[in-house]
Design a protein that fits this description.
Helix content is about 15%, strand content about 45%. It has a single domain, classed as Jelly Rolls, CATH 2.60.120.
């Protein structure tokens, strides 16, 4: 009985970890370098996305539409943040409604889009672009 309990506990724990780290992959149509999506987020929620790029490519993520301030906040309630950037390898700049990344390595980049409005769902547009031109990086040059 004890072994069954331990096995059940480990299985449930694994399911929670898998769900917590799940990401929605961003994939472009054949030949495209950008994608625009309509996103609806529940109040006080977040969604993780991933995109795979090569070293030196630029990822620009922009959100527009119903991202405005709430009655309780002086900043947009929809935010975009990089989860797995590495200092001294990657460069990234975020601000109100955007995230710009200059990839310092080949691989998967994970970013979170969050709705901090505690009372209402938000529907907005999210555009993700990948470019080979380093001048497209919105953080400026080093």
């Amino acid at each position: 009985m004890r072994k069954l309990f331990i096995l059940l506990t480990l299985t449930v724990g694994f399911l929670f970890v898998s769900t917590a780290n799940a990401q929605t992959p961003i994939q472009f149509a054949k030949g495209a370098s950008s994608k625009t999506m309509t996103v609806t987020m529940k109040p006080n929620s977040e969604t993780k996305y991933s995109i795979t790029v090569k070293k030196g490519q630029v990822i620009n993520i922009g959100v527009s539409g119903d991202i405005g301030v709430s009655k309780n906040n002086d900043f947009p309630v929809i935010s975009v943040n990089l989860n797995n950037g590495v200092d001294d390898v990657d460069n990234w700049q975020d601000g109100e409604g955007y995230l710009s990344i200059l990839a310092g390595k080949n691989g998967k980049y994970i970013f979170t889009v969050a709705n901090s409005d505690k009372k209402r769902a938000r529907t907005f547009k999210m555009e993700v672009k990948v470019s080979n031109n380093k001048d497209d990086y919105e953080g400026g040059t080093e």
